[in-house]
């Protein structure tokens, strides 16, 4: 089947049909994912320069009887488009908070505990109240101060003043910090970003990947690290897979590292084992 018709109009082909169908299938089954208890969280360690585990990022997992394991890159966008992300995000927050407390009680102390927040979730009118309620239910002041919410550059498409106010209130009243995820992949201007009350930048895996591969890769990463330094932001490198990448990042002053080089995201119990074996 030809992808393009005579007049340059895209024709519907089997491939597109299959994609639409799987998108619809994901959407249909995603509605039952929470009631059927199919959503869980994995935890990926973040290590400091000395190789100590200082933080963790919670990552959503969906295991469905029909579809098998569905990647977040597939179901999170569907959850965003359908609005399901509001319920799903709330569930993820609560599960993550419970894990943070459980680990604390088991003697596993971390400096920070990061959770991804989608824009549609963040800008929902009920988000702040939800966070407040869940935090009050599960976490004392000491544990609250470990929370980091990872947001993305798409936030700049929103009412920036409202976004800033919400961030400031969550920081002032609950001690929650904010990290700019996937930094460098969006289209936001630097001046916009500097207005946000951020604590941390995460260098996107796409940049870390280029280290040792492309000519301009290292220069770009060095520039981002420099900028974080000027803006007094903590920086986390994500997607660190090789000793060469780690070495480059260390020589350029990066302080926190996350990636397969150390560990893939792990189920809760395996994270505990990993922590005990290293710290
Ligand atoms: P992200 O926030 O940028 O998360 C990092 C992704 O990189 C994760 O993919 C992680 O498994 C993967 N990763 C970590 N280290 C390495 C590495 O060394 N090499 C490679 N190749 N990959 C690595 P994952 O878990 O599939 O998540 C994909 C995206 O889905 C996340 O990207 C995030 O945008 C979104 N996501 C995941 N969980 C949640 C969630 O609970 N809420 C929201 N809103 N979004 C989520
Ligand atoms: Ca993230
Ligand atoms: Ca990221
Ligand atoms: Ca990324």
From TrEMBL:
Keyword Transmembrane applies: yes
Keyword terms: Membrane, Transmembrane, Transmembrane helix
The EAL domain, residue ranges: 23-279
Coiled coil ranges: none
Keyword Ribonucleoprotein attached: no
Protein name from the UniProt record: Diguanylate cyclase (GGDEF)-like protein
Organism: Sulfurisoma sediminicola
Record lineage: Bacteria, Pseudomonadati, Pseudomonadota, Betaproteobacteria, Nitrosomonadales
Shown chain mapped onto the complete sequence: 340 to 618 of 618
């Amino acid at each position: 089947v030809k992808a393009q018709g005579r007049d340059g109009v895209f024709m519907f082909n089997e491939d597109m049909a299959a994609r639409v169908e799987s998108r619809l299938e994901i959407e249909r089954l995603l509605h039952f994912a929470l009631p059927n208890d199919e959503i869980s969280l994995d935890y990926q360690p973040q290590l400091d320069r000395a190789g100590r585990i200082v933080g963790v990022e919670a990552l959503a997992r969906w295991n469905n009887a029909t579809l098998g394991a569905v990647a977040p890159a597939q179901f999170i966008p569907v959850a965003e488009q359908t609005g399901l992300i509001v319920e799903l995000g709330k569930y993820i927050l609560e599960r993550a908070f419970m894990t943070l407390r459980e680990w604390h009680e088991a003697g596993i102390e971390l400096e920070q505990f990061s959770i991804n927040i989608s824009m549609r979730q963040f800008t929902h009118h009920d988000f702040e109240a939800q966070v407040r309620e869940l935090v009050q239910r599960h976490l004392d002041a000491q544990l609250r101060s470990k929370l980091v919410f990872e947001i993305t550059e798409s936030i700049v498409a929103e009412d920036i003043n409202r976004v800033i106010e919400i961030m400031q209130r969550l920081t002032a009243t609950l001690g929650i910090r904010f990290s700019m995820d996937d930094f460098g992949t969006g289209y936001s201007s630097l001046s916009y970003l500097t207005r946000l009350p951020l604590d941390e930048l995460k260098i996107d895996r796409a940049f870390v990947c280029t280290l040792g591969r492309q000519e301009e890769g290292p220069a770009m990463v060095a520039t981002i690290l420099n900028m974080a330094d000027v803006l007094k932001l903590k920086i986390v490198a994500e997607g660190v897979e090789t000793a060469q990448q780690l070495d480059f990042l260390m020589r350029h002053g990066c302080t926190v590292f996350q990636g397969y080089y150390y560990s893939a995201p792990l189920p809760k119990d395996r994270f505990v084992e990993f922590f005990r074996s290293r710290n």
